[in-house]
Amino acid sequence: MHYSSFGLVNTKKLLTKALRDGYAVPGFNFYNMETLLAILRAAQITQSPVILQVSESALEYMGDDILIGMIAGAKYKVGQVSLHLDHGHSFEVCKRAIDMGFSSVMFDGSNLPLKQNIKISRQVADYAHKFDVSVETELGVLNGTEDKNTKSDKMLYTDPAIVKDFVKQTQTDSLAVAIGTSHGLYKRKNTNEKLRFDILKQIAMNIPKTPLVLHGASSIPQKFVNTINKFGGNLKNAHGIAPNQLRQAILLHIAKINVDSDSRLAFTSAIRETLAHDKSIFDPRALLTNAMDNITKNCVDEIQNIMGSGYKI
Ligand code: G3H
Ligand code: 13P
Ligand code: ZN
After folding, report:
1. Which of 142, 183, 214, 259 to mutate to test the pocket of ligand 1 (most atoms within 8 A of CB)?
2. Are 200 and 249 within 8 A, CB to CB?
3. Most exposed among 34, 42, 104, 166, judged by the fewest C-beta atoms under 10 Å?
4. Is the C-beta atom of 259 inside 6 A of ligand 2?
5. Could you confirm whether 65 is annotated as catalytic?
6. Which ligand 2 atom lies nearest to the CA of residue 218?
């Protein structure tokens, strides 16, 4: 199936416009009907473009057929929504996503030796471009837990000196960079720690036409952490990237900002609070409706206060 038959758009189109006009398109991860609908509702409320992201483990969780069934069933406004494979770790999984109807894929070879990263990134780009699908690749390593297969204790900042050649050799459409963000709930030693804007500035200067991507960019709203902890959870020292740091990154060519952990927190805090307030509740739909609404509210908030992507379609 080709993504255009679902009414989806090539991610490159969304990112080119974002880079030109100085905002970021949110890459929100989803893994079931509730998270999918929550994101689409936020996009509709804000009239923002949005990238629906599926990680490899989310793909396994939903299964190809259920995922595509949901994607085919949803309604999209023209030019608003793309479907993206997040952190694909092999040519095979990227090909599978393209064949299934994704409109962009990320090949994440950031943990591979550079030569191999370039080789597979190019192989993915050559295949993807045949179908007008775009490709995101990565240089540098983020610390933290990315998915069940990838965990790194060290941060390797992206080397600005090699980005131009990397983009040329791989023919990538966008590039994920490591400038101090990390995946998951425990990103920073303290909230005042700054991103490496000096590195980002040099990267942007060397590849001015390439939209840059920021992974591990959840801001970890403390209201969710506090609610979770108040109602039986135990999330200690969870800190994210301050919204003003993210807004500053957008001024330096970050055109896509990836958020997953914030939606997970919004979901879980709503479930914990609902269960604590209503001891007789047992219909999952009541729980899930509150969880969905909380994700939508948070996505709207981030679109309006971080991404600047509202009313851009
Ligand atoms: O960047 C990674 C995403 O947050 C995906 O995580 O593999 O647990 O779905 P996941
Ligand atoms: P967070 O863990 O900061 O939400 O990062 C998500 C991400 O980078 C998805 O690719
Ligand atoms: Zn990521």
Report:
1. 183
2. yes
3. 34
4. yes
5. no
6. 3
Nearest CA to ligand 1 atom 6: 147
Residues in contact with 179: Cβ distance below 8 Å, sequence separation at least 6, in sequence order: 140, 157, 158, 195, 196, 197, 199, 200, 214, 249
DSSP structure class, residue 307: I
CB of 103 closer than 6 angstroms to any ligand 2 atom: no
Spacing of C-alpha 302 from chain mean position: 13
DSSP bridge pairs for 186 = 239
> Which residue is associated with the tokens 């240089």?
139
CA distance 202 to 210: 13
pLDDT digits over 44-53, tens only? 999 999 999 9
* Pocket flag, ligand 1, residue 58 (CB < 6 Å): yes
C-alpha–C-alpha distance, residues 218 and 123, integer Å: 31
Categorize the per-residue pLDDT at 292 as very low, low, confident or very high, splitting at 50, 70 and 90.
very high
Q: Which residue shows structure tokens 């941060």? A: 155
Considering only CA atoms, which residue is closest to atom 4 of ligand 1?
A: 260
- Is 182 strand, coil or helix? coil
Q: Is the CB of 182 under 6 A from ligand 2?
A: no
Contacts of 124 (CB under 8 A, 6+ apart): 88, 91, 94, 95, 105, 107, 135, 137
Query: Residues 86, 108, 173, 260: which is the catalytic one?
Result: 86
Over residues 108-147, the pLDDT tens digits come to 999 999 999 999 999 999 999 999 999 999 999 887 666 5
Cα dist from 18 to 34, 50, 104, 192, 306, whole Å: 27, 11, 16, 27, 13
